[in-house]
Every structure is written in structure tokens, then in C-alpha cells.
């Protein structure tokens, strides 16, 4: 299989990839200089839609309606936008090996891609309860939500289990959003989370009490301060109940788990400096390896506000870190070009 070379490669096809591509286009690209390599089958899209509008019972959001950059009020970048701007979309392609020293990426199908500049925008993967050996966690109709394929499977289950019972595991963004949208779909909804209140990393107890009261008034039942320890299923392997640590069992036709994510940094282990679970960068999202940037969920970067380095899992950070990295690379490249053009010939 022939090797393909690009000046710039964005590895990952999520929100950060789309915003980085737009920024590259703003600064000027030659056709064929930039490629986005993504294991998803579609062009970059606004991922938050999957836990909101995509699941609405009426007027549900569908592509191409929420391709980037509509989430920030910008232009919707349809697949043809990339080709019109000379950007190659390499979709349905999973990279299984990254060699930063030789600037080479290898796909599961054996294709190789080389680059001059790499932007790591691999994002996160969901934390799966089966990773902890939770009994019954592999039963049918237990869902996680990260990519559009996950959302499609959940949509099919909502249709198949109309007016049924759903248990939402987790009290963070995904838990709150899925509880609301499943109630809109006329499901009996119960949220379960071990913390004393929802969104504990962001909400005070008083703020959380307001939201919990609001959800309760909408008919959402909340079980907090207890852990999920297992699942029961029927002869077909379909989940039937959720077992709690306090001994109770909650009936369930569908379970949606939202207990956090892990940054996808495995490809780069022992090749780049890491900190706090992510790839360490400077304020311009440059890593310890020259010519390699990390943006979005995978980046651990300095935050002056806290005088600390942190990793942030938020869509706004994905957008802005991607733009910042491209601005830095574009400015550096322009400065290098001008400097060399202005030097007197020897």
C-alpha cells in the first residue's frame, strides 16, 4: 500500500479537528497540504448534539445540520468544503501505530501516512463499566455515548422500547442531558450516581439542589450516594435491572452510562512528555516533540488562572485549543519563511 505524505496531519475527526481545519484555511493552504485522519465515517461535527438534539422525539438533529462550526455560530463545514479547500478527509481509518521519531502513522489496514507537522486531536474514549469487571455490564441495551454510531444505536433502542424504563448511570453532563432527553421521549427515568450531589466538580451543593429539584419536578427520579454493582439480563441477553450497592435493584429496559472518559494517548506513550493523564503542552499547545501539537481532551496545558497545568474536557476548549495551535504553527511557519527570504544570499 502506497505511502501518503502531507505537510500537516490532524489525527482525529472530532470538534477540534474541524476547527483546526477552518483555522488552517483562514491562514492559507496549498491543495494537498493538510489531511484529517479519522476512524469515524463522517466529517467533523459538533459532538454535543448527540446528547441533545439528536435524541429529540420530534425534529431531531441529523447531519449535515450539525457539522462544525455551527456550534459556535460559524459556517457549517460540509464534506465538500474540505475538498474545495484542498483538505483531504481520510475517514473510516483507524491509526494503530504512531512513530513520532520517523513522523509516520500506520492504519489498521496497513496504510502509512507521513507528515511534517502533526496535531493530535484524538479526544477521549468513554469509561466502560466492563473495564472494572462489573457483572452483567456487557448485556444488550447498555449504552455509552461518544460517537454518532453510539447515538444511532440509542435511537434504535428508544424506538424499540417505547415508553419503557431507563436508568442513567452518572450525574455529570451526560447524565443530566440524557435524563432530560429520555424524559422528553416519555421514558420512566432514574438517575444513579455515587456522589452526594450532581456535577460535584462544578456545582456547589446549593446549585446542585436547584437542578435536582427541577429534574424531580419533571418526573426524573434521583438515586444519589450509591454505586451500581451489576446488571441482570434475560435469556436474550437484554438488560432487565440495575443492581445497586445498597441492595436494591432498579428495573430497566435501557441503561445509559456516563461516568467520564479517558484521553486517547496510548499511541504516543513513551514518545512524548505526559502529565496528569494527558500530553503535556506549552501555552501554544506544542508538545515536547518538535512539530507535534496536542489539542482538546488530550492536552495538559498551563492555566494562568490557577497557576497550574490542567487537562480540560469541554467542547469550548476543543475549539479554542485547536485554533490556538494552528495560529501558532501558521505564525511560526510564516516567520520562518520571511526570515529565510530576507536573508542575504551567501
TrEMBL record:
The keyword Phosphoprotein does not apply. The keyword Flavoprotein applies. Keywords: FAD, Flavoprotein, NAD, NADP, Oxidoreductase, Redox-active center. GO terms for molecular function: monodehydroascorbate reductase (NADH) activity. Its EC number is 1.6.5.4. Residues 6-321 form the FAD/NAD(P)-binding domain. It catalyses: 2 monodehydro-L-ascorbate radical + NADH + H(+) = 2 L-ascorbate + NAD(+). Belongs to the FAD-dependent oxidoreductase family. InterPro entries: FAD-oxidoreductase/Apoptosis, FAD/NAD-bd_sf, FAD/NAD-binding_dom. It comes from Musa troglodytarum (fe'i banana). Its cofactor is FAD. This is monodehydroascorbate reductase (NADH). Pfam families: Pyr_redox_2. GO terms for cellular component: cytoplasm.
